[in-house]
Amino acid sequence: MSKLAVIYHSALGTGTQIAKAIVGAAEAAGAKAAVRKVAESAPQAEIDSNPLRAAHDTATADVAAPTVEEARPGVIDAARPA
Asked: 17 lies in which domain range?
């Protein structure tokens, strides 16, 4: 079985949509796949100053960050909660 971790960053949501579409296609093809979001590096004040960005940040707060193990090529535990 193929394994795939889609590790992404998205400020406004387009990257999130693309990452979820990739994972959906991979799972439909029989792969073990998961979406992981990198930590936000922008200051909270900058995020909060843009209503779209703030809404996206809130909506994706539950998306797990990749572990060091998952970020290595060929390693993923898709059973880990997103």
From this structure: 3-71
